[in-house]
Design goal:
heterodimer; A: 443 residues; alpha/beta; 8-stranded mixed sheet; 20% strand; globular; B: 475 residues; 14 helices; 16 strands; 31% helix
């Protein structure tokens, strides 16, 4: 009896402690919701008119016409509105880069060439003004990636691990969905790639200040291969007898890459780089996500053949070459997706993070199917980063990251009326709305 | 036809500024127009100033709009463009552009670079002219960068792709001068090389000082010339004219109202500073450019009579852009400022219609007001509103034809028309691609045969990513 009492009191203390530290989000996660009467775009299937979406414990628990509304659920009448999965910005620097030109607020690029042990999540400031500004546009979760090209730092090849997180929460621990979602590699530059002047990114690995040479390239690739080889040896040594192996944080970080679990996020802007990277990952049996621009169009047959998913550089970006058709960036998403290549959009920097849906809308204007564009904003990137079962569609059991809008989320005049992140009704208020409200009232 | 054109020209000349009138009257003939009578039929016409016409048609004669309406008939000699299901709006006017400039856009060595003139470096072969045409842009204000408190002389162009440089110039449009305030002229974000001496100014106080010093000199210089001219016209024969100063000449024109001031700026206090300085020296700021904190001092901008030419939703790329909000255009409009949305970037210019549309969501602007921000409002800001910016009889036939409402993200420009001539045609562009690719391949083969390394051109120097403000932080 005494023992039972003791256990009880311990568990009561545990409950009390949990309550004290859960703060608002965890408390709210207890609230159930039913969004009723809306046109629901589940993405996994055709839209459902007049459907109900039930949210409980942070998850979607029912979707469909006449889904039962649990007692105690807060009902949101969404008649005339539309429900979509929250959008996924597949490359950002959110939380890592507050004011681009102010170095002290930018934690994106570390020194050194091979830093697989670094994790973006460590540098994400959960109080960043970018987070509420971005989520107000219906973007509920993002990837933040370290060491994207063209942003300071010292010519890194392996820049670190990209992190996947929700755009709501008091701490990164609460926000993160996948602390390590991909290993970022700026693919070394090959000679004869042409272009290069525009857009930055991927231009690493060349000798400082000079044109890339084949010798430089081969040296970098040999180094990369050595890292992966050492990681493989490290993994087998650890498996054999982990007590006899000296811990190596860099190799430890690469183990999941060489096992094919963690995708390699390859930044490459030239067609010849992409061809080499695809062949390399194929040979090394690495899972690859390609981050690139119009060069994808030149190697699309290869990308299709090897089933390489593509995160496009911001499509609303000036073209590199003078000779390219004026709409090359704009027709590209449609061209790739029509072939069955999995496409996603990203903003890279944060200044235009909220233009994600605009990129997709313009892609539709230039030939991408509307369905493919919605997938590119939701389920495609979720699958790329290995969370296709948790995010990206409105299906029972998935994390309830949802938006309720008054129209097509790609259209410029559409407003996000309700925003759910992790099953919680989340505010769309932000720095910009606050300044608007403050200054419009100035007498 | 001649008679009609002359009448039109005459009526345009009346009431226009004297300087503008001279140029308008010497309007060159449009030899390249396939027909001088064009008829765009059966479209939704967004006139901007006179409402929307369903199933309307536009008759164009000699490059100008001769008739607009639902009941206009095509004359037998007209070239008819069937625009059924299309939307026609006035050609987009970009109040802040750096296209068509040969070489760099910044003369960064001095803080007052008013002697430099864009007119001297117009490059009609810049592919960005064509690409912006493909975004429905027909006129643009071409400015230097923002490295100087007082920058170079600006020029308004029409995007007459294929014409020589002197034919790009918008005839009669008053020239301008670029000013710049804040981080760029004080060089906050530029790397100082070893041994390099920092350039004055380095603070906002210094920026104000540079402008006040320059105008103090300009006032004295103007007085010298005024005295000289007065004595000369009084018959004084033995006079030595003052030494001409190419830096001060444009500033005197500003003082005389013959040159518009377009000032790059970001934060509220520097906007007020320039208004104070302008009032002190008796000139007007024609437009505040970028003006991302304009919403904080919209009342003062409106009272000064300046326009505001801003970005849709850019923010956070530098400290002075950290309080930028996408509601800026809406607030300034509500407070009585004439507002335009500009590009500052050759790519951004390709979707200014979309950028304007965002104010419907941020601040609840009406469809008509949003459209004005890329048509009649920038025309007013550049003093060319009698010629362009709306679809009205007598105005230049500068049109953008879309397949959907241009304020929808799904709208694509099908044709862009300047002076009644089709300068961009999407169908023709697409149809011409195989031939161009073939021609390029033939040239590459020839180069290879000639033993050229064929390193392959591609990137242009000074390449810009999304937003030159962000990549270069100079413009």
């Amino acid at each position: 009896m005494k023992k039972i009492l003791k256990t009880l009191s311990y568990s009561m203390i545990a409950i009390a402690v949990a309550a004290a530290f859960s703060l608002v989000p965890a408390a709210q996660a207890q609230q159930s919701y039913a969004i009723t009467g809306a046109k629901v775009y589940p993405i996994s299937g055709p839209p459902i008119e007049g459907a109900t979406v039930v949210i409980h414990g942070g998850k979607i628990t029912a979707v469909g016409k006449g889904a039962a509304i649990p007692s105690g659920a807060k009902v949101i009448d969404a008649k005339g509105l539309e429900v979509y999965p929250g959008m996924f910005n597949a490359v950002t620097e959110i939380g890592m880069n507050e004011v681009g030109a102010v170095e002290a607020t930018v934690d994106t690029a570390e020194l050194g060439e091979y830093n697989p042990q670094l994790v973006a999540a460590t540098a994400v400031n959960p109080a960043s003004a970018h987070i509420p500004v971005t989520r107000a546009e219906g973007i509920t979760h993002v990837i933040a990636a370290p060491g994207l090209g063209g942003r300071g730092g010292g010519g890194s090849v392996i820049t670190g691990q990209a992190s996947l997180f929700n755009l709501a929460g008091w701490t990164m621990d609460e926000m993160q969905v996948k602390r390590s979602a991909a290993m970022v590699v700026n693919w070394p530059v090959l000679p004869g790639g042409g272009g290069g002047g525009r857009g930055g990114g991927g231009g690493r690995g060349a000798a400082a200040g000079g044109a890339p040479s084949r010798a430089d390239y081969d040296r970098r690739i040999a180094e990369l291969t050595e890292w992966f080889e050492r990681a493989r040896h490290y993994a087998s040594a650890m498996q054999a007898n982990k007590y006899s192996v000296e811990r190596d944080l860099k190799l430890e970080a690469l183990v999941s890459v060489v096992k094919g679990d963690l995708p390699l996020f390859v930044v490459a802007n030239q067609a010849n780089q992409i061809s080499e990277a695809v062949a390399y990952c194929d040979k090394q049996k690495l899972k690859m996500i390609l981050a690139t621009g119009t060069a994808a169009g030149e190697v699309k047959v290869l990308l299709k053949e090897k089933n390489v998913p593509v995160i496009l550089r911001p499509t609303l970006t000036l073209l590199r070459g003078e000779d390219e058709p004026y709409d090359s960036n704009l027709t590209l998403p449609g061209q790739l997706s029509a072939m069955g290549i999995k496409v996603a959009f990203g903003s890279y920097g944060n200044e235009f993070a909220r233009r994600l849906a605009q990129q997709a809308g313009v892609a539709v204007a230039f030939g991408m199917s509307h369905d493919d564009a919605l997938k590119a904003l939701t389920i495609n990137p979720a699958e790329m980063f290995g969370v296709g079962k948790e995010l990206g569609t409105i299906e029972t059991g998935k994390i309830a990251n949802l938006i309720v809008t008054n129209g097509d989320p790609m259209e410029l005049s559409t407003e996000v009326r309700y925003l759910f992140i992790n099953g919680q009704l989340t505010s769309t208020d932000n720095k910009h709305k606050q300044l608007y409200e403050e200054y419009r009232k100035r007498p | 036809m001649k008679r009609g054109k002359n009448n039109l020209t005459l009526s345009l000349c009346v009431g226009a500024l004297a300087a503008a009138a001279i140029a308008v009257c010497s309007w060159p003939s449009r030899a390249q127009t396939t027909s001088n009578v064009m008829f765009f039929k059966n479209a939704t016409i967004l006139t901007v100033t006179k409402g929307t016409i369903q199933r309307g048609s536009i008759l164009v004669r000699d490059g100008r709009i001769a008739a607009v309406g639902a009941n206009v008939q095509a004359p037998s000699d007209a070239t008819v463009v069937d625009a059924t299901g299309m939307f026609i709006m006035p050609g987009i006017i970009d109040c802040h552009s750096h296209i068509a400039i040969e070489g760099g856009v910044n003369e960064g060595s001095v803080s007052v670079s008013s002697m430099a003139n864009i007119l001297d470096v117009l490059n009609p072969e810049d592919i960005d002219i064509y690409r912006d045409l493909a975004g429905g842009v027909t006129s643009a204000n071409i400015l230097h960068g923002s490295a100087n408190a007082i920058g170079g002389q600006t020029v308004v162009i029409k995007l007459r792709w294929g014409q020589p440089a002197d034919k790009l110039v918008f005839e009669g449009a008053l020239p301008g001068i670029k000013f710049a305030l804040g981080e760029n002229p004080k060089r906050s974000n530029s790397t100082i090389l070893p041994g390099q001496v920092r350039r004055y100014p380095a603070t906002r106080m210094g920026v104000e000082d540079v402008i006040r010093q320059a105008f103090t000199q300009a006032v004295a210089y103007k007085k010298q010339w005024d005295d000289y001219n007065r004595r000369k016209s009084a018959g004084d024969a033995n006079l030595i004219p003052p030494r001409r100063d190419l830096t001060l000449d444009p500033l005197v024109e500003v003082l005389e109202g013959k040159r518009y001031v377009h000032s790059h700026c970001y934060v509220a206090d520097e906007i007020l500073m320039l208004i104070r300085v302008a009032n002190e020296f008796g000139f007007k700021v024609r437009t505040f450019q970028h003006v991302l904190e304009g919403y904080k001092v919209a009342k003062e901008i409106a009272a000064h009579g300046a326009g505001a030419s801003t970005f849709s939703d850019w923010w956070s790329y530098k400290m002075e852009a950290f309080d930028a909000i996408p509601y800026n255009a809406a607030i300034m409009t509500q407070k009585g400022v004439i507002v335009s949305i500009n590009s500052d970037d050759a790519e951004e210019a390709q979707h200014l219609n979309q950028e304007a549309a965002k104010s419907m969501r941020y601040g609840g602007m009406s469809h008509d007001d949003a459209l004005k921000m890329v048509t009649i409002n920038p025309a007013i800001q550049l003093g060319i509103e009698k010629r362009v910016g709306s679809i009205e009889v007598g105005k230049d036939a500068d049109l953008a034809i879309y397949n959907h409402d241009p304020l929808s993200v799904f709208a694509v420009v099908q044709k862009t028309v300047i002076d009644g001539k089709i300068y961009f045609d999407r169908d023709k562009d697409i149809a011409g691609r195989p031939a161009l690719a073939k021609e390029k391949q033939a040239l590459l083969d020839k180069e290879r045969q000639a033993g050229g390394g064929g390193a392959g051109r591609g990137g242009r120097s000074g390449g810009r990513g999304p937003g030159s403000e962000i990549q270069d932080r100079e413009e």
